[in-house]
Amino acid sequence: MLAGYAVHVEHSRGRRFPETQHPYRNDFQRDRDRVIHARAFRRLEAKTQVFTRRYSDHFRNRLTHTLEVSQISRTIAGALGLNVDLAEALALVHDIGHPPFGHAGEKALDTAMRRHGLSFDHNLHALRIVGDFEQRYAAFRGLNLTFEVREGIIKHSRDYHAREHPELAEYLLDQRPPLEAQLIDLTDEIAYNTADLDDGYEAHLLSLEEIRGGVPVFDGFYREVAEIYPAAPDKLKFNEALKRMINRLVGDLITNTQTRLQAAGVQTLDDVRRHGERLAAFSPAVGAERRQTKDFLYENLYFSPALADEKDDAERVVGELFAFWMEHPEALPHNYQTKAKEANESLPRVICDYIAGMTDNFIFEQYEKHCGAA
Ligand code: MG
C-alpha cells in the first residue's frame, strides 16, 4: 500500500512525447527498464567507482555500486510506503552521468571546462543523456522518461536555482523533490561509505585496526560480533560488523524519516513538495556517525598516497585529451564534429559530452592514439 505522501504513478505528470500505456508495466516500471537497456547504463560497468581494475576484479565499479544503491533504495522505499518502482528507477539512473575515473575524472573535466567559462555537472549531464544522447526509439530522441524521473535526476542530491539554471525551470525548482528522490542521495552514501570500507580493507589500504580505531560505530559492532563468533576468521567478523552497520543506517533512515513526516504533519505529496526542507534524513546521532565514517574515508582512503598516482593519471589523460581535441576538432568522430558545427553546441561542450560518456578503457585507448603512451 502506497502512503498518501508517495508518488502515485497514475498522477505522473507524464512524458514529453505521449505514449500509449503498456499492457502490464506501469510508467515508472517502464522508465526503470529503459534505463537498464540504455547504452550509458551498460558503460557504468567499465567506469571506476573508487578502485580501478588494477586492484581486483571483485571490487565495486560504478555499475555494481548502482545496483547496491538500488537494492537499499527499494528496501527503504518499501518500508516507508513510497513508490518502489520510482525509487528503483532513480537509483539505477543516479550515476549515469558520471565520466570515467570516478571523482578525479569529474574534477578534471570540470577544470577543463572552466578554462572556457563553462562547467561540468554529472546530474545535468545525466539529464542530457536520457533526454537526447540515448537513441533507441524511432519516434523521439532520448528515453522519453516521465517527469518524476527527470526531476529526480536533477534534484536528488542538490538544489538548483532558477536564476542560474533557467533551462531547468520546468522541474519545480522552488519545491522539494518527492521522498523517492530525497532518499537517493542518502542511500548512495549508505552504499559507498560501507562498500569503500570493505574494498579498502580488501585492497589492504585500510587495516582492521585503523578502521576499528577511526570508525567507532564499526568497532562497537565488531566487538559484538567477536563475542558471538570468537573463532570466525577476521574477514567474516568484518562482514558481520559491516552488515550491522548497514542495517543501522537503513533502519535509522526509515524510522527518523517517519518521525519527521509525523512531526511535520505530512499527509500528501504536495505537503512533501512544499515543506521548507527535505524530510528524508538520518537522526542526529546516526548522522554524526555517518559523518565520522565519511571523514575517515577521506583522510585514510580517498586521499591516500596509494591512490594518488591513478588520480594524477586521470587528470592528465582527461586534461590532455580535452586540449588535443580543442586544437584538432577534425580528429573528433564525425557525429561530434557535426554537432559542434550545426547543432548550436560549443566545441568545449561537445568534447566534454564525448569524454564524459567514455569508459576508463576507451579513454586510455584514445589517449594512446592521440597523445602517446599513458
Ligand atoms: Mg553514486
Task: For this entry, give a set of tags.
Hypothetical protein af1432; 2 domains
Give a quick precis of the structure.
With 374 residues, this protein is mainly alpha-helical.
What is this structure's SSE topology?
Layout: H1 27-36, H2 39-43, H3 62-79, H4 84-93, H5 102-114, H6 122-133, H7 147-155, H8 179-202, H9 208-214, H10 216-228, H11 234-263, H12 269-274, H13 284-302, H14 305-327, H15 334-342, H16 347-357, H17 360-371
Helix pairs in contact: 1-4, 3-4, 3-8, 3-11, 4-7, 4-8, 5-14, 6-7, 8-11, 8-13, 9-10, 10-11, 14-16, 14-17, 15-16
The protein binds magnesium ion.
Magnesium ion binds near residues 65, 69, 94, 95 and 188.
GO biological process, one term: dGTP catabolic process
Protein name: Deoxyguanosinetriphosphate triphosphohydrolase-like protein
Pfam family, one: HD_assoc
How would you explain this protein's 3D organization?
The protein is mainly α. The chain folds into two domains: 16-308, Hypothetical protein af1432 (Orthogonal Bundle); 309-372, no CATH class. The chain is built from 17 helices and no strands. The model has no long low-confidence stretch (mean pLDDT 95). Residues 65, 69, 94-95, 188 line the site of magnesium ion.
| CATH C-level class of the largest domain | Mainly Alpha
What is the name of the CATH architecture of the largest domain? Orthogonal Bundle
Low-confidence regions:
none
Instruction: Tell me the fraction of residues in β-strands, as a range.
Output: under 5%
Provide the CATH superfamily of the largest domain.
Hypothetical protein af1432
Give me the CATH fold name of the largest domain: Hypothetical protein af1432
Please estimate the helix content: 55-70%
Largest sheet: none
Number of domains: 2
Molecular shape:
globular
How big is the Rg?
A: 22 Å
**Average pLDDT rating:** 95
